[in-house]
């Protein structure tokens, strides 16, 4: 390996090691998602359920639009 490449690799490895040590000693501060993630998810699920529950109970939706049994065919004319 060339001396320049070896020095660059050593420098890169040393930088990664320093970064890892620095992150290991730092206190973990909770982010927004750590603090409120579950509540936001549950709130969204409750809102979704409430809105669709309202839609399904108040809007007169007719299920099954099939015309079978409602329409009788007319006689064929030649």
UniProtKB/TrEMBL annotation:
Topology of the protein relative to the lipid bilayer: Single-pass membrane protein
Q: Name one GO cellular component term.
A: mitochondrial inner membrane
- Regions that span the bilayer: 36-55
Identify the metabolic or biological route this protein is part of: Energy metabolism; oxidative phosphorylation
UniProt cross-references to InterPro entries, sorted A to Z: Cyt_c_oxidase_suVIIB (IPR008433), Cyt_c_oxidase_suVIIB_dom_sf (IPR023272)
What keyword terms does UniProt attach to this protein? Membrane, Mitochondrion, Mitochondrion inner membrane, Transit peptide, Transmembrane, Transmembrane helix
Q: Name one GO biological process term.
A: mitochondrial electron transport, cytochrome c to oxygen
- Subcellular compartments: Mitochondrion inner membrane
Which family, according to UniProt?
Answer: Belongs to the cytochrome c oxidase VIIb family.
Name by which UniProt lists this protein: Cytochrome c oxidase subunit 7B, mitochondrial
What is the scientific name of the source organism? Chloebia gouldiae
